[in-house]
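Support request, please re-run this one:
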Amino acid sequence: MFNAVDATRNSVRHPSVAWSIVLILVAAAASGCGQQQHGGMGGLPPPKVTALAVQTASLPVTFEYVGQTVGSKEAEVRARVTGIVEKRLYQEGAPVRAGQVLFQLDAKPFEAQLAAAEAEMLRAKAQKTQADREAARLRPLAEHKAIGQKEADDAASAAEFAAAAVKAAQAKLSEARLNLSYTRVVAPIGGLSSRSQQSEGSLANANTTLLTTVSQVDPIWVLFSISDNEKLRLDKAMADGHLALPRNNAFEVSVKLSDGSTFPRAGKINFFDTRVNPQTGTYEMRAEIANGDLALKPGQFVRVALKGAQRTGALAVPQVAVLEGPQGKFVYVVGKDKDGKAIAQPRPVVVGDWTTRDGGNVWLIDSGLTAGEQVIVDGVARIMMPNTPIEVVQAGEAPATAAKP
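Re-run finished. Output below.
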């Protein structure tokens, strides 16, 4: 038989046993009181909650994706002739102008080739002058039958051959001059330079050796992708009349940086691929943003937010009203028990995108709620279990988006 004195002595030796006994006694007392009183748990008054009636409305929707910045033009700077790199003439990472000399190759071999081409040009011109004189001297003699016609024809042909040789020499001279100019490697576009891939003294092979890269970053591009599944979902929502997108992809594009700040200038969509990438199963999109101060650099990972879409006839509830349970997300709605008293009934919901309105964050509800139902938005933490009696202290017909989370 249970002895209170023995229990007390054991509790002194074992404090955990004492606490267990206290909890059992408190629970028993609460159970007894609950049988004698009506209302909340353990006879306590029903918790006070705030509920708002959800109504259909046209709500703005923001789509967010992970993106990466790239230059609007990306140029690889390569040597166009084979030579030894003598000097690097730019500061790595600094902005460069189109046409600015970045590298100087050893020009001595090309200067020698140019001198040889000029000498060949002079020789060809001299031969042409001699051939022209010979043809002019023999032509009247052939007309007076003083010499044979064949001899005059041969002189005329020699003059033509000499003229062709002059043109060939001219072409070689132009090529030599061009190759000499290629020893000064210039920036093909203006933008931000990259590090030098070759040091002084290294051999640069024509059209193969990469010296550096230049990225035009004003404007700068932001690449991001939308999954095929999301694209199909959006298309279905548009076909059902539940979603309206801006025409010609005229979204307002904002960019969030890695520190959470928002880039001060908005952009626009300038490309939307109509093909699915077979490797990623996504559609590629591209935004363009003015970047005159070079604040954005190529290669940055950012979050791209697209604004301008509207959810038509949408139901929305404050984010604080949506809870996470073992079976997924749910909300508490105001229901009635058999006596007509207000109780908190859990309602599973399927949520879509989230957006902001009137300064508060809201979830768009795809299914699970109907217009006019009262959703509990404040005091949810006081609800200990489903179907708990509650006291609704403020019930309004205002849209749920009026409440801030």
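The longest helix spans residues 108-143. Residues 1-36 form one domain.
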